[in-house]
Please model this.
Amino acid sequence: MTLWLFVARRLAVLVPTLFVVSVLIFSLQQLLPGDAAIALAGEEQDAAVVAAIRAKYHLDRPLVVQYGLWIGNVLRGDFGQSLRNRIPVGELLLSKLPVTAELAVCSMLIALVIGVPAGIVSAARKGTPIDVTANLVALSGLSVPHFWLGIMLILLFAVRLGWLPASGYVPPWENLRLNLTTILLPSFVLGTGVAGVMMRHTRSAMLETLSADYVRTARAKSVPEWLVVTKHALRNALIPVITLGAIEFGRLLSGAVLTEQIFAIPGFGKLLVDGVFNRDYAVVQGVVLVSATLFVLLNLLADVLYFLANPRLRG
Model:
């Protein structure tokens, strides 16, 4: 099977998946309590004003018509206008996406630096105190709630030690040093959770690979153990880790709601929370749809990387 045929088959599944996702996004939002038109009308809630708002934003039309109008605009690149501040949703998404992307990249780097080496060492030293310690650390990363860890880190590094700011965000093009100080704590909070997942999967894949026949043959030929682990085992063990990494990166790009709220990071997560509280339909729909699209595309990328890394799929 060629790469292009493989990608074409995945795209044939991707398009209907995104269609179903868009329907779910639009439908589930209608279950939110309250009325957006009444909320926008203010305290007086004049009937004529409410009716005018419903007509302006097509809230008085049947749901099928509303969905058709919305998805038609989305396909043309128009996500609508924020009901709260009258700013085009596309502009809001473009302004928040770099923030969330930076947070996701930094978090993923921390996860890879911690998780993959820990998984390799844990598998190579199975049953030793190093293996037990690595598993305990990974389990802690998976079990500790992000909001609690974020608050504890703020109390330690911002309040007690004063080394890092407690919250806020500075773009890298304005001040790179301040940008790194503001992004470090939230990246560590998210990265440790992903690192636990990466460590466990890397360890499982390495243990399976280290028990393979070709690894036993390499050891029988007196190949140094470090070479057996790094050259013979690691190369094949990282194939499933690649897929996991792409999925976890997509999850990070979807916006870490609690972490962004705790550290006041103006990314997708905070934009989504503000949109829900303000009943800003267009913003919520835009954030969730873009996040879902990025997640699906990264899954496609993971499949492509897996295809390239695994020769058996090309047979």
User: Anything to note?
Assistant: The mean pLDDT is 81. The chain has two domains: 3-75, 89-314. The longest helix spans residues 89-124. Residues 159 and 309 are 47 Å apart (CA to CA).
